[in-house]
């Protein structure tokens, strides 16, 4: 059977990562976490002392940087120029700086190139902010997940706590709101509902229901059981 390209876009905390991971596992497809790729680029920028607002230096750095992603049974590992930076990706400093870094045109151009390379053969579930709109506009299945701000903040808080990073709920809510505004209003590839995407509100859904919702869309395309 033809291997599809499935895209899942949406704002922070909408359930993209968890849903995409499970859907990919169910289909036997590659899971591509593109937010992690932008975060990996951000780790390098911070490490090199580059201000996240310095477009010129970020553009230069991005053109010389290789980001690769490996999927393992226990999760995804992300490499910047061959170095495993996975354990740094979820830090609050990286989260905050990832928005301005990802707004830089040359950073996005480099990422799109790397992401299309991974998706070229199909059999991929790609998750991010511009998967269905820019990177894979001809994707077979496009999904946009959304959820209320309060619910998204609660989810992110739980995730961070589970990773040993306790946080204040108000702070998480404010950070998410700020990133939403930034990611949706930037000039290059802003977060939008891609043309042809099915919108699923995950506020009151369990993870299993979210996964089933996406698999239903895949099934409609293939006419097969998944
Ligand atoms: O999904 P995330 O929180 O890991 O994403 C981190 C940042 O990367 C987010 O603020 C916006 C950016 N991003 C993007 O611009 N385009 C993508 N396809 C994925 C993430």
Layout of strands and helices, then pairs:
Layout: E1 5-9, H1 16-27, E2 30-33, H2 34-47, H3 55-63, E3 67-72, E4 75-80, E5 83-84, H4 92-102, H5 105-119, E6 124-128, H6 131-135, E7 141-146, H7 149-162, H8 169-185, E8 198-201, H9 207-222
Parallel strand pairs: 1-6, 1-7, 2-6, 7-8
Antiparallel strand pairs: 3-4, 4-5
Helix pairs in contact: 1-9, 2-4, 3-5, 4-8, 7-8
The structure holds 2'-deoxycytidine-5'-monophosphate (DC).
Compute the gyration radius: what is it?
A: 17 Å
What's the domain count? 1
Strand percentage, roughly? 15-25%
For the largest beta sheet, what order do the strands appear in spatially? 2-6-1-7-8
Please report the first level of CATH classification, the CATH class.
Answer: Alpha Beta
Helix count, DSSP H or I runs of 4 or more residues: 9
Task: Write structural notes for this entry.
The chain is an alpha/beta fold and about 230 residues long. The chain has one domain: P-loop containing nucleotide triphosphate hydrolases (Rossmann fold, 3-Layer(aba) Sandwich), CATH 3.40.50. Helices cover about 50% and strands about 15% of the residues. The chain is built from 9 helices and 8 strands. The strands form 2 sheets. Strands 2-6-1-7-8 form a 5-stranded parallel β-sheet, sandwiched between helices. A hairpin with a 2-residue loop joins strand 4 (about 75-80) and strand 5. The structure holds 2'-deoxycytidine-5'-monophosphate. 2'-deoxycytidine-5'-monophosphate binds next to helix 2, helix 4 and helix 8.
């Amino acid at each position: 059977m033809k291997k599809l390209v499935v895209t899942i876009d949406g704002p922070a905390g909408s359930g993209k990562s968890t849903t995409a991971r499970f859907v990919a596992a169910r289909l036997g497809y590659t899971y591509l976490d593109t937010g992690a790729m932008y975060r990996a680029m951000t780790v390098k920028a911070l490490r090199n002392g580059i201000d996240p607002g310095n477009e010129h230096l970020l553009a230069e750095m991005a053109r010389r940087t290789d980001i690769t992603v490996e999927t393992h049974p226990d999760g995804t590992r992300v490499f910047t120029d061959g170095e495993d930076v996975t354990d740094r990706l979820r830090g609050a400093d990286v989260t905050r700086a990832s928005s301005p870094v990802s707004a830089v045109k040359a950073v996005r151009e480099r990422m799109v190139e790397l992401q299309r390379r991974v998706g070229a053969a199909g059999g991929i579930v790609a998750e991010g902010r511009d998967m269905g709109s820019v990177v894979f506009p001809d994707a077979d299945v496009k999904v946009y997940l959304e959820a209320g701000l309060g619910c998204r903040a609660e989810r992110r808080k739980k995730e961070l706590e589970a990773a040993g990073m306790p946080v204040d709920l108000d702070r998480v809510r404010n950070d998410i709101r700020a990133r939403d505004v930034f990611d949706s209003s930037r000039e290059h590839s802003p977060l939008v509902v891609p043309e042809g995407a099915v919108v699923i509100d995950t506020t009151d859904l369990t993870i299993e229901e979210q996964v089933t919702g996406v698999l239903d869309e895949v099934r409609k395309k293939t006419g097969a059981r998944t």
